Amino acid sequence: xxxxxxxxxxxISFTVEHQCPQCGAPITxxxxxxxxxxxxxxxxxxxxxxxxxxxxxxxxxDAPTDNDIIYLPYWRFKGVxxxxxFSGVEPRFLDIxxxxxxxxxxxxxxxxxxxxxxxxxxxxxxxxQGKFIRPLEFKTILQALDKPGRALKKNNPPVFxxxxxxxxxxxxxxxxxxxxxxxxGILNTPIQAVLPGxxxxxSLDLCRPEKETVFVSGICPDCxxxxxxxxxxxxxVCRNCQTLWRTRGNKLGKIKYxxxxxxxxxxxxxxFWKIKADIPPIAMETYADLIRMxxxxxxxxxxWEHQALYFWTPAFKLQPKVFLRLTTxxxxxxxxxPLEKKIRKNIHLPITLPPGEAIxxxxxxxxxxxxxxxxxxxxxxxxxxxxxxxxxxxxxxxxRHHEYFNPDLNIAINKNILTLSxxx
Length: 424
Ligand SMILES: [Zn+2]
Ligand SMILES: [Zn+2]
Known about the structure:
This protein has helices at residues 138-145, 287-293, 320-333, 355-360, 362-369, 373-382; strands at residues 5-6, 15-19, 26-30, 35-37, 44-49, 53-56, 69-85, 88-99, 120-123, 131-133, 160-178, 181-184, 189-192, 206-207, 213-217, 236-238, 243-248, 251-255, 257-260, 268-278, 311-314, 339-340, 386-399, 403-406, 411-414. The chain is mainly beta. Strands 1, 2, 3, 6, 7, 8, 9, 10, 11, 12, 13 and 14 form a twelve-stranded mixed sheet that branches. Strands 19, 20, 21, 22, 23, 24 and 25 form a seven-stranded mixed sheet that branches. Strands 4-5-15 form a three-stranded antiparallel sheet, with no helix packed on it. It starts with a strand and ends in a 10-residue tail after the last strand. Residues 220, 222-223, 225, 238, 240-241, 243 line the site of one zinc ion.
C-alpha cells in the first residue's frame, strides 16, 4: 500500500547545510538557492544537481548510537498541475511529500509535512552512515496519488494534464529500532509499541544513494571574470565578455541569447524562452495553423501560411494564470523585434524557469488557444512536443505606475505580480 499526503496550501521551504567547496566553511542555504558567494572566502559557487537532490534529516543527538539508522525515503514535489478540461485549463499549485515505499508500518508518517522547517537538511554523500530504503519511482507515487479516492484525484478527470515542476527531491528521514521498538529518529519517540514479527530489516530493499549535488566554480570559463546572478537564477552573467552560463553536470555551459534594444535606461529586461517545436501528429507549424485552430478573429494573410510559428514562455516562475495569459498573448503576437547580443546596464529579471519546463508548457498554451476544445483537446492530449530550437530572448518593458509595459507588443505585466526580486 502506498501512503501519501498533500500539504495543502502550505508553502514548505527547507534549508540545507552545505560546505563551501573552497574553504570548507559551513553555509546554510534555502533549498531553492543555486548560486552563492561564500561569506568567509568570497568565492562564488553554483549548486548543480545531476538528477535531483538527495537530502537527509540528521538523527536526533539524543538517539542511542549503537543502533542502525534506517532512512525512509520521501519524494518531495512542488509545482503546478495544469488540468486541461473541455471547460478550459485549470491550474493548481501542488506541494506534495509522500513516503516512497511499500508495506510501511501503519504509524510511519506518510508525509514530511509534520517535520519542523527549523530542521536543516543535509546532502546525502557516500559517507553518510545508515541503511537507506530504496525509493519507489517518483512517477509511481504521482500516479498513485491520482487513483480514485486518493489525494490528487478530482471528481472530474481532465482530458490531459501536465505537472510543471519547481522542486523535485528525495528526502530521507531517520528511524531506528531499539529494544524491539521502532523509533522516529528525529523526535526520538517510539512510533510502534512492539515491532511486528514480520518486520525484518534484512528483508528490506536497500540502496546506497550517491551524492548528486555538485558545486561548480562561479567564474566565467571564457575570460575568468566573476559571474553574477541572483541566488535562485539558473543563468549567470559575465559582464566582462557579455556571455551567459548555466550549469551542465559539473561544468558551465554557454547559453545563446539575444536582446531587443531597450528604449530607456530604466526599462526592465524580461527573459523569455522562444521555442520552435513540432507537435506531431498535429500540424502546428505556421502562424496560419495557429489562427485556424484557435478560430481567432483574424483574416488569414497568404504570407502567414509560410511564417514559422514560435512559442514564447516567460523564463521565470509566475502565477499560473498570468503565465498562461502571457504565453497565449505571445503566441498571437509572434514578436519579431530587431535583436542584439548585448547585456546592457538595465535590470535583467533572473531566469528561474528551465527551458525543459517551458517546452512542457506548450501543450497547455495550445489548450488555452484552440477552439472548439471538444474538437481539438483529444488530439492534443496524444500529441508530443518535439523542440527544434530554443533561444533565450530579453524584451524591454517600461515601468509604469502599476505595470511593466511593452508598447510594441501592447502587452502589460502587473507590478504586483512581477516583483523585481533581483538582477540577473
Ligand atoms: Zn568559502
Ligand atoms: Zn567572461
